[in-house]
Design goal:
The protein is α+β, with helices and mostly antiparallel strands. It has 7 helices and 5 strands; from the N terminus they run H-H-H-H-H-H-E-E-H-E-E-E. The protein has a single domain, classed as 2-Layer Sandwich (Beta-Lactamase).
Length: about 180
């Protein structure tokens, strides 16, 4: 009985948080926790391994990257070689080493929006044309609303920041922060 009550309370709390966050923006205490996480993630913008991988991608995109479209990407399974190559490459391994329990997803994109590496397959191949990529390419960070992410199935808040070569944005990093882990 106690376990059932705990589960019901957790479900109620997640719906309460989601409805409050979506209806009125984030509650100040939740926004403060998100801000603290974003501040901790800022080091990723200039992380040497991330910068080097994005520079390599931008100068020499992998075979098939230029032909990939969001429609084609959606047809690929998580076992497709094009997908596994981005979850098993050295940058993906580095992202795994940076991940903590609050991160529900993370992906790095080159200047063109194409994926360089990620923890799990993303919903779209490119986010170019969307604020989560375009704002970082303009040197700004971005934060989305609380949502249930289509690729992870988790309630999260996405944030993104530029990958910086010196002061120049060369790509973007998107990190999904799991709301229930804050």
């Amino acid at each position: 009985m106690k376990r059932t009550t705990t589960v019901i309370a957790a479900i109620f709390m997640s719906f309460f948080l989601a409805s409050n966050c979506l209806a009125e923006g984030l509650a100040p205490e939740l926004q403060a926790k998100v801000d603290a996480k974003i501040k901790a993630f800022q080091a990723w913008s200039t992380d040497a391994k991330i910068v080097a991988a994005v520079k390599e991608y931008n100068s020499n995109p992998p075979a098939g990257a230029k032909e990939m479209t969001n429609d084609k990407w959606k047809t690929l399974t998580i076992m497709d070689q094009a997908v596994t190559s981005l979850t098993k490459n050295p940058l993906a391994e580095h992202l795994k080493s940076l991940k903590d329990d609050s991160i529900s997803e993370a992906f790095v994109s080159g200047a063109d929006g194409g994926k360089v590496a990620f923890l799990t397959k993303t919903t779209s191949w490119t986010h170019k044309g969307n604020p989560k990529h375009d704002d970082p390419m303009a040197g700004k960070s971005w934060q989305g609303p609380v949502e249930v992410d289509a690729s992870t199935g988790k309630q999260q808040i996405q944030t993104s920041m530029p990958v910086l070569d010196g002061a120049t944005p060369i790509g973007s990093i998107v990190i999904g922060i799991a709301v229930l882990k804050l």
